[in-house]
């Protein structure tokens, strides 16, 4: 049995990159051929969209599986479709794992303890993909109901060798409105959450350097990211906001340790829909959307390698 963080770091070392590809299937942006084929096959719009999302994600997984250690399906786009979408999400997660990828389901769950237990059992399969219906290696979790509501997730992480990423400082423009609220000692809410996450990381799946309880910290706030890295030395970070939201490699550099570990950097739209972006539209176009996604993934990998300590992963492979 291997803890979530050991499996993640093994995958990062094997692929020599900390790039994480988000799967965010947005109907209007999918290649037209995939949409039309699904609409011809199914009368029911939700069934057609679910089939198209599954096909798009499976084909994207085939493109990125040889290149990156992990994927992060965004549950919201699937949930919007109702039951058909939920089935498609579960199938996409299983397919990703079958291709050897670490799968982090982004569903941002959180509730009172006894309800949180049910969420944990639904998503956290950990090492055994048969252990949960949405058989993810890890799940994003919202901590704002309190520390007691994280405990059921932590316990299941320990039991099933799974992981969670707790929202600490998010990437959105309004992140500061609640998260920067200060207590009487001048400590922000997100700093208080970070103290709890650092403590929990030592309780579940700790590999000597990092635990299996991670934190989500946005690339769009590099000063806070650097500070939080120092405040949570044993916490693996999931960093969204690179690419479409404006974050770049320099912004995320402080997240990595000297071996290039300790963080994964997510990009969703900039890879999923690279064929629509000025950088790739002309050379690839819609028919070659997979080649555009591959080029965008490779560009991200090179960017992280050249401009962050994650470049050490490449050097280690040359020395080996
Ligand atoms: O938990 C997340 O992944 C997340 C947290 C956060 O603070 N900001 C954020 O953008 N995300 C998610 O990361 C993805 C970012 O997508 P792109 O902006 O297209 O790269 C989306 O699925 C978001 O829901």
UniProtKB/TrEMBL annotation:
UniProt-listed PROSITE patterns: OMPDECASE
Q: Which organism is it from?
A: Planctopirus ephydatiae
Q: Give the InterPro entries listed for this entry.
A: Aldolase_TIM, OMPdecase_AS, OMPdecase_type-2, OMPdeCOase_dom, RibuloseP-bd_barrel
Any idea which residues are catalytic in this one? Answer: 108 (proton donor)
Q: Which protein family is it in?
A: Belongs to the OMP decarboxylase family. Type 2 subfamily.
Q: Which GO terms describe its biological process?
A: 'de novo' pyrimidine nucleobase biosynthetic process; 'de novo' UMP biosynthetic process
Query: What SUPFAM superfamilies does UniProt report for this protein, alphabetically?
Result: Ribulose-phoshate binding barrel
Supply the SMART domains for this chain. OMPdecase
Q: How would you classify this enzyme at the top EC level?
A: lyase
Name a GO molecular-function annotation. Answer: orotidine-5'-phosphate decarboxylase activity
- Pathway per the UniProt entry: Pyrimidine metabolism; UMP biosynthesis via de novo pathway; UMP from orotate: step 2/2
Q: What is its EC number?
A: 4.1.1.23
Q: What is this protein called?
A: Orotidine 5'-phosphate decarboxylase
* Keywords associated with the record: Decarboxylase, Lyase, Pyrimidine biosynthesis
All copies of domain Orotidine 5'-phosphate decarboxylase, residue ranges: 18-284
Concerning Gene3D superfamilies, the annotation shows:
Aldolase class I
Catalyses: orotidine 5'-phosphate + H(+) = UMP + CO2
């Amino acid at each position: 049995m291997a803890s979530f963080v050991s499996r993640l770091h093994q995958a990062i070392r094997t692929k020599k990159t900390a790039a994480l590809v988000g799967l965010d299937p947005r109907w209007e942006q999918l290649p037209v051929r995939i949409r039309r084929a699904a609409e011809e096959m199914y009368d029911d719009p939700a069934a057609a969209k679910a089939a198209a999302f599954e096909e798009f994600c499976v084909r994207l997984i085939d493109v990125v599986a040889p290149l990156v250690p992990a994927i992060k399906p965004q549950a919201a786009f699937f949930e919007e479709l109702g039951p058909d979408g939920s089935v498609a999400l579960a199938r996409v997660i299983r397919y990703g794992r079958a291709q050897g990828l670490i799968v982090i389901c982004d569903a941002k769950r959180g509730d009172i303890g006894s309800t949180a237990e049910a969420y944990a059992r639904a998503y956290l399969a950990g090492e055994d993909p048969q252990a949960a219906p949405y058989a993810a290696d890890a799940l994003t979790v919202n901590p704002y109901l309190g520390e007691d509501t994280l405990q059921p997730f932590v316990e299941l992480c320990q039991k099933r060798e799974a992981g969670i990423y707790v929202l600490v400082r998010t990437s959105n423009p309004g992140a500061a409105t609640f998260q920067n609220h200060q207590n009487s000692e001048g400590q922000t809410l997100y700093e208080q959450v970070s103290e709890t996450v650092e403590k929990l990381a030592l309780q579940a799946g700790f590999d000597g350097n990092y635990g299996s309880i991670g934190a989500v910290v946005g690339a769009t706030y590099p000063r806070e990211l650097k500070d939080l890295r120092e405040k949570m030395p044993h916490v693996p970070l999931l960093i969204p906001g690179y690419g479409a939201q404006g974050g770049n490699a320099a912004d995320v550099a402080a997240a990595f340790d000297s071996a290039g570990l300790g963080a994964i950097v997510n990009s969703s739209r900039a890879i999923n829909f690279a064929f629509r972006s000025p950088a790739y539209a002309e050379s690839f176009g819609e028919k070659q959307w997979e080649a555009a996604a591959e080029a965008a993934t490779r560009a991200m990998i090179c960017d992280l390698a050249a401009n962050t300590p994650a470049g050490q992963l490449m050097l280690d492979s040359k020395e080996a």
